């Protein structure tokens, strides 16, 4: 094994020819974070006594669920084996990014790829190529990166390295012998992989004499130091105590600290061409550091910004409301700070007659929703209600007007000509024995088969067009249970289609409760209405008068349940006597109930909202181990 220096060269003097920027991409549970651990140990940037499993996964949620949510950049020194005698060559600086594997965090992966020149495509030697492997490979090809194919977990008894090396080689267009075989758990082959990274990754290209330009690829908020911005320098040089300017906002700041992540923050004199590091300006305003923005010097700065990232398009919308209305300002500040750390988060204020003030938040998927809600509750101490997730619809009226609907309460009334819903192109990979079960599931979700290919004699790839609304709830759970956990799913938006959709309203005592409204397919509206009124009947406490709970499409009621009234026994004081006396008392009670019904209103308890609206009951969430 080559001798590896533990001291990182002074960043401001690193020759760009000795820099290698690469990331690790793979499906969930194929061992990216474990491989990153071995690289940290092998290069000596983390001492053995400080080492822990999944070292780069910093958040509690990541550690509990065993999944990576945030990309993490780290700087590693590595001296590759020089000649045949095994002597170490020149010490190179490797900037490695560990990326998430779940489809909901693809935006994190695409931003990481934009900061790299090569990527390590990792495949589990026991499971083979899966849906997200393909999706990440195509992303890397779009960015024109050098792809290094690697098989991991070769130490497992179930591993089939030769079979999956041939599959991977066929996919990328290389020889099976070019596929590296490593074990991230034991460390076998990791040194050879780092040598390969140095050998095939092109050094970063940039003009060191041009005005400084650096791309912001991530930010995080620190309560003590303000906004910490992570950048990749493309041209020129950024130095400590220089004044910088954000090109999109024009805001000017002084650089209080500049440095590299190795993997803890390590201050430096500056950053040159191709280097990845962090900037601290002491700014507390989170809106002044935008992912995709270009940083330049205030004096003699660049004129042209670098090409930014494509803005992510939210796939799923959900309302987030504080349980206590006075927490609304805290929720707004918390979302501002989270958006800094998660550029895929989109939100706008909204109000609900039932839930008060809150925000309509756009997410890339259901796991993204679940993680954001949990982070808001843990990191900022908020108690929240999340309304049932829904997607964006486009409604065209008969008079030609068009409405964009992100919330069922916005669904227009009147004569509707057409309703369009978003559709996705789903790629499903599974053993061939489960083809029938998968086809049955997709057809029940209004899917259309686009094609089917056998990757090998026992693995098949199915391509479907599916309405997004049909897969944001429990589709993934159903897919996993029907295929004993072997199937994998990836999807990408492909536009929209016309569909027969209706809005189902829930009426309590004749009044609509906007928070319970839902947009659903006409064929499934009845089942939805029956399920919801049945659930509400159990949750709403009995009143002094009878309360009808109805589900309606427009003015047509499709389901009804009744909460029986609480009745006082007015005949208790009548021992025998004339029946007319009893009848008189009952009639008097009836009149009172009628009067009460006219003036009474039904208070829906908070627990009922939480139980019915909580996305937990509907959300098909992936808790993949990685």
TrEMBL record:
<dbReference type="InterPro" id="IPR009000">
    <property type="entry name" value="Transl_B-barrel_sf"/>
</dbReference>
<dbReference type="GO" id="GO:0016787">
    <property type="term" value="F:hydrolase activity"/>
</dbReference>
<dbReference type="InterPro" id="IPR038363">
    <property type="entry name" value="LepA_C_sf"/>
</dbReference>
<keyword id="KW-0378">Hydrolase</keyword>
<dbReference type="GO" id="GO:0003746">
    <property type="term" value="F:translation elongation factor activity"/>
</dbReference>
<keyword id="KW-0342">GTP-binding</keyword>
<dbReference type="Pfam" id="PF06421">
    <property type="entry name" value="LepA_C"/>
</dbReference>
<keyword id="KW-0547">Nucleotide-binding</keyword>
<dbReference type="InterPro" id="IPR013842">
    <property type="entry name" value="LepA_CTD"/>
</dbReference>
<dbReference type="InterPro" id="IPR000640">
    <property type="entry name" value="EFG_V-like"/>
</dbReference>
<protein>
    <recommendedName>
        <fullName>Elongation factor 4</fullName>
        <ecNumber>3.6.5.n1</ecNumber>
    </recommendedName>
</protein>
<dbReference type="InterPro" id="IPR031157">
    <property type="entry name" value="G_TR_CS"/>
</dbReference>
<feature type="binding site">
    <location>
        <begin position="152"/>
        <end position="155"/>
    </location>
    <ligand>
        <name>GTP</name>
    </ligand>
</feature>
<dbReference type="Pfam" id="PF00679">
    <property type="entry name" value="EFG_C"/>
</dbReference>
<dbReference type="Pfam" id="PF00009">
    <property type="entry name" value="GTP_EFTU"/>
</dbReference>
<feature type="binding site">
    <location>
        <begin position="29"/>
        <end position="34"/>
    </location>
    <ligand>
        <name>GTP</name>
    </ligand>
</feature>
<dbReference type="InterPro" id="IPR006297">
    <property type="entry name" value="EF-4"/>
</dbReference>
<keyword id="KW-0472">Membrane</keyword>
<dbReference type="InterPro" id="IPR027417">
    <property type="entry name" value="P-loop_NTPase"/>
</dbReference>
<keyword id="KW-0251">Elongation factor</keyword>
<keyword id="KW-1003">Cell membrane</keyword>
<feature type="domain" description="Tr-type G">
    <location>
        <begin position="17"/>
        <end position="205"/>
    </location>
</feature>
<dbReference type="InterPro" id="IPR035654">
    <property type="entry name" value="LepA_IV"/>
</dbReference>
<dbReference type="InterPro" id="IPR035647">
    <property type="entry name" value="EFG_III/V"/>
</dbReference>
<dbReference type="InterPro" id="IPR000795">
    <property type="entry name" value="T_Tr_GTP-bd_dom"/>
</dbReference>
<comment type="similarity">
    <text>Belongs to the TRAFAC class translation factor GTPase superfamily. Classic translation factor GTPase family. LepA subfamily.</text>
</comment>
<dbReference type="InterPro" id="IPR005225">
    <property type="entry name" value="Small_GTP-bd"/>
</dbReference>
<dbReference type="InterPro" id="IPR004161">
    <property type="entry name" value="EFTu-like_2"/>
</dbReference>
<comment type="function">
    <text>Required for accurate and efficient protein synthesis under certain stress conditions. May act as a fidelity factor of the translation reaction, by catalyzing a one-codon backward translocation of tRNAs on improperly translocated ribosomes. Back-translocation proceeds from a post-translocation (POST) complex to a pre-translocation (PRE) complex, thus giving elongation factor G a second chance to translocate the tRNAs correctly. Binds to ribosomes in a GTP-dependent manner.</text>
</comment>
<dbReference type="Pfam" id="PF03144">
    <property type="entry name" value="GTP_EFTU_D2"/>
</dbReference>
<keyword id="KW-0648">Protein biosynthesis</keyword>
């Amino acid at each position: 094994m080559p001798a590896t220096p533990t001291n990182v060269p002074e960043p401001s003097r690193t020759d760009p020819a000795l820099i290698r920027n690469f990331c690790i991409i793979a499906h969930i549970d194929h061992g990216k974070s474990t491989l990153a651990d071995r690289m940290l140990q092998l290069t000596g940037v983390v001492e053995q006594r400080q080492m822990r499993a999944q070292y780069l996964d910093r958040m509690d949620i990541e550690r509990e669920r065993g999944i990576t949510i945030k990309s993490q950049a780290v700087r590693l020194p590595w001296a590759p084996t020089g000649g045949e005698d095994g002597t170490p060559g020149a010490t190179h600086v490797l900037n490695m990014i560990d990326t998430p594997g779940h489809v909901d965090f693809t935006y994190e992966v695409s931003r990481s790829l934009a900061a790299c020149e090569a990527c390590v495509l990792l495949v589990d030697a026991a499971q083979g190529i899966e849906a997200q492997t393909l999706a990440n490979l195509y992303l890397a090809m779009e960015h024109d990166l050098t792809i290094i194919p690697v098989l991991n977990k070769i130490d497992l008894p179930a591993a089939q390295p030769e079979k999956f090396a041939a599959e991977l080689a066929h996919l990328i267009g290389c020889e099976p012998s070019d596929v590296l075989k490593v074990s991230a758990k034991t460390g076998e082959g990791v040194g050879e992989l780092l040598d390969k990274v140095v050998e095939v990754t092109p050094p970063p290209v940039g003009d060191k004499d041009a005005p400084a330009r650096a791309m912001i690829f991530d930010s995080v908020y620190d309560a003590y130091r303000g906004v910490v911005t992570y950048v990749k320098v493309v041209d020129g040089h950024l130095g400590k105590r220089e004044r910088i300017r954000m090109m999109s906002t024009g805001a000017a700041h002084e650089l209080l600290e500049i440095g590299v992540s190795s993997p803890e923050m390590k201050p430096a004199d500056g950053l040159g061409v191709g280097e990845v590091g962090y900037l601290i300006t002491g700014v507390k305003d989170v809106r002044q550091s935008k992912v995709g923005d270009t940083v330049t010097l205030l004096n003699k700065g660049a004129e042209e910004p670098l090409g930014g990232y494509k803005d992510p398009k939210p796939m799923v919308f959900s309302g987030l409301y504080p349980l206590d209305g006075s927490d609304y300002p805290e929720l707004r500040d918390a979302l501002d700070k989270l958006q800094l750390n998660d550029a895929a988060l989109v939100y706008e204020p909204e109000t609900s007659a039932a839930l008060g003030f809150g925000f309509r938040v756009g997410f890339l998927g259901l796991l993204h929703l679940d993680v954001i809600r949990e982070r808001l509750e843990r990191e900022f101490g908020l108690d929240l209600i999340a309304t049932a997730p829904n997607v964006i619809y486009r409604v065209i009226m008969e008079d030609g007007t068009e409405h964009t609907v992100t919330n069922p309460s916005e669904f227009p009334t009147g004569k509707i000509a057409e309703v369009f819903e978003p559709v996705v192109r789903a790629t499903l990979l599974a053993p061939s024995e489960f083809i029938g079960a998968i086809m049955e599931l997709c057809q029940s979700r209004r899917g259309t088969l686009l094609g089917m290919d056998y990757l090998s004699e026992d693995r098949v790839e199915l391509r479907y067009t599916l309405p997004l609304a049909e897969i944001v709830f429990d589709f993934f759970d159903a897919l996993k249970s029907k295929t004993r956990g072997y199937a994998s799913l990836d999807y990408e938006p492909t536009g929209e289609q016309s569909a027969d959709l209706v809005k189902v309203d829930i009426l309590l005592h004749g009044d609509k409760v906007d928070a319970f409204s839902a947009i659903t397919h006409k064929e499934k509206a009845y089942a939805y209405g029956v399920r919801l009124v049945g659930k509400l009947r159990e949750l709403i406490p009995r009143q002094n008068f009878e309360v009808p709970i109805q589900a309606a499409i427009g003015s047509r009621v499709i389901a009804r349940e009744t909460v029986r009234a609480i009745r006082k026994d007015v005949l208790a004081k009548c021992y025998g006597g004339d029946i007319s006396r009893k009848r008189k008392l009952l009639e008097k009670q009836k009149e009172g109930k009628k009067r009460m019904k006219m003036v009474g209103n039904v208070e829906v308890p908070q627990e009922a909202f939480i139980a019915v609206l909580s996305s937990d009951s509907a959300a098909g969430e992936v808790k993949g181990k990685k």
